């Protein structure tokens, strides 16, 4: 699978920057699924660590996931499991 996103650790969580090849609508759908509990790409343990998800829709699209206990590896694994990104 081609690299579709770069995950960086922040003090308050993680930031995910998406490559230009990822359709914005798919990122919007991914965030909506997470916020409504319809996401099945991450474990319940990881979901419980998320305090807030912020979508940054500028020239480049990114997501900030706040939660002090969130590990980089958890989010990288979730991105690999995302059916929306597998379709890209």
Protein topology:
Layout: E1 5-10, E2 13-18, H1 24-35, H2 44-49, E3 52-57, E4 61-66, H3 72-81, H4 83-86
Our Rg estimate from Cα atoms comes to 12 Å
Number of helices: 4
What global shape is seen? Answer: globular
The order of strands across the largest sheet is 1-2-4-3
Q: CATH class, anyone?
A: Alpha Beta
Strand content: 25-35%
Low-confidence stretches: none
Count of spatially separate domains? 1
Overall mean confidence score, pLDDT: 88
Helix/strand-derived class?
alpha+beta
Count the E strands: 4
Distance between the termini: 9 Å
Instruction: Assign a percent range to the helix content.
Output: 25-40%
Write the CATH architecture name: 2-Layer Sandwich
The biggest beta sheet is recorded as: 4 strands, antiparallel
What is the chain-wise order of helices and strands? EEHHEEHH
- Could you name the CATH topology? Alpha-Beta Plaits
What attributes characterize this protein structure?
single chain; four-stranded antiparallel sheet; Alpha-Beta Plaits; about 90 residues; alpha+beta
Report on this structure.
By secondary structure, the protein is of the alpha+beta class. It has a single domain (5-86), classed as Alpha-Beta Plaits (2-Layer Sandwich). It is 36% helix and 27% strand. The chain has 4 helices and 4 strands, in the order E-E-H-H-E-E-H-H. The longest helix is centred in the middle third of the chain and has 12 residues, at 24-35. It starts with a strand and ends with a helix.
